[in-house]
Write a structure and sequence with these properties.
Strands 1, 2, 3, 4, 5, 6, 7 and 8 form an eight-stranded mixed beta sheet that branches. This protein folds into three domains: 47 residues; 250 residues, 2-enoyl-CoA Hydratase, Chain A, domain 1; 72 residues, no CATH class. α6 packs parallel to α8 and α10 crosses α11. It is built from 16 helices and eight strands. It is an alpha/beta fold. Helix content is 43%, strand content 12%. It is globular, with a radius of gyration of 30 Å. It starts with 12 loop residues before the first helix and ends in a 16-residue tail after the last helix.
């Protein structure tokens, strides 16, 4: 099996084997009818195998696909999707962060400003881009260019692809958390259309720093989460070896988030993922962006802002449950059996020891005053300053 161009995803081993087999058949003499039939059969099998594997990806496998080394990055989409791009540098405070690409661009008839994370392809590029983890100056640069877009009435397109904001001491000293919060606040009221697309990893506040928009979409095999799987596993189980379990628990795949209403659209990837056909993926992304730009540019800004606000306010599920006004009662196993509150019944009631042990818990229903009087009468030594009082163990 050839390994020169393998992305290194272990679950894709059957695909690699069929691709190598097909490559060998194509390089050999295919003039005979038998060879042609074999090539067609292997191609069908390859398509069916790829479709079956990618239709049943686990959450952790989705993370692996989103990190695939040949997957298109922001810089790739800038050359494949947009007709022109002029990069803008610097945050006017500290420096220029290469992990955040910003600039003017043109897609069809629309002039826009593009902001996006950049990981880098080679090791040298990745080191310069901090592997896609932006510093505070990167988010300040992004906000500065988005304000420039609003000034000139240009829509903003954000490409999200980061495991998280840079967690170093220097970044924290320069206000990492504050600048991300400021970006989210300012983007919520920016007077221009904003489209956000998660093209790979969407991890933690690093993603949210450029993730507030009128439309939020993600590619089929991307993920969008409050934390990376490794970070979650490190916090909960003190080991990254539980990252696969954390990925399953976080529910961050495109299918999950579309059902939760976190994202508005899921952009289908080519068979086998965006890394297998970047040009087709770019064409689908361009089609989505052009369609969404046509939709948003027709909406007045005065309507756009309240819609954007309500979009994020509607996220999440809230459950309200009121305490019953009259809790259920049950007779004690011992004593007078005078209808004491089941929430205040304790093992001490059955034995007649007279200790309530703070049984009227904050988690249970409110105590019935009659039950309190009955309970106190059985325990003559209990005063108003005891465990049933407002100063007790409630």
């Amino acid at each position: 099996m050839s390994s020169a161009n393998q992305p290194g995803l272990p679950f894709e081993t059957p695909i690699y084997e069929l691709e190598d087999r097909l490559r060998g058949l194509l390089q050999a003499d295919a003039s005979s009818p038998e060879a042609g039939d074999e090539i067609r059969r292997v191609r069908r099998e390859l398509a069916e195998t790829t479709k079956r594997i990618y239709a049943n990806l686990t959450p952790w496998q989705t993370v692996q696909v989103s990190r695939e080394k040949n997957r298109p990055y922001t810089a790739d989409y800038l050359s494949l999707v947009f007709d022109e791009f002029v990069e803008l540098h610097g945050d006017r405070h500290f420096g220029d962060d290469r992990a955040m690409l910003c600039g003017f661009a043109k897609i069809d008839q629309y002039k826009v400003v593009v902001v996006g994370h950049q990981k880098g392809r080679t090791y040298k590029e990745r080191a310069a881009c901090n592997f896609g983890c932006a510093h505070p100056e990167g988010y300040r640069k992004a906000l500065s260019k988005m304000r420039l877009a609003a000034k000139y009435g240009l829509p903003v397109i954000c490409f999200i692809d980061t495991p998280g904001a840079y967690p170093g001491v220097g970044a924290e000293e320069r206000g990492q958390a504050m600048v991300i919060a400021q970006n989210m606040f300012e983007m919520s009221r920016l007077r221009t259309p904003i489209i956000c697309v998660v093209i790979g990893e969407g991890g933690s506040g690093g993603a949210l720093g450029i993730g507030v928009g009128d439309r939020v979409a993600m590619l089929e095999h991307a993920y969008y989460s409050v934390i990376s799987p490794e970070g979650c596993a490190g916090i909960l189980w003190k080991s990254h070896q539980y990252a696969e379990l954390a990925a399953k628990a976080l529910r961050f795949t495109s299918k999950d988030l579309l059902g939760f209403g976190i994202v508005d659209s899921v952009i289908d990837e080519p068979l086998g993922g965006a890394h297998r056909d970047p040009h087709r993926m770019a064409a689908r992304l361009k089609q989505y962006l052009a369609k969404t730009l046509r939709e948003l540019t027709r909406i007045p800004v005065d309507h756009l802002l309240p819609n954007r606000y309500e979009k994020f306010r509607r996220m999440g599920v809230f459950m309200d449950s009121a305490f019953p006004t009259e809790p259920e009662t049950a007779g004690s196993a011992g004593g007078s059996g005078a209808g004491s509150d089941s929430a205040t019944a304790t093992p001490g009631d059955a034995g007649g020891t007279g200790e309530s042990n703070g049984a009227s818990s904050a988690k249970g229903p409110k105590a019935n005053p009659k039950s309190k009087s009955s309970h106190a009468s059985r325990n003559g030594s209990q005063s108003n300053n005891g465990s049933q009082s407002n100063n007790g163990s409630h």
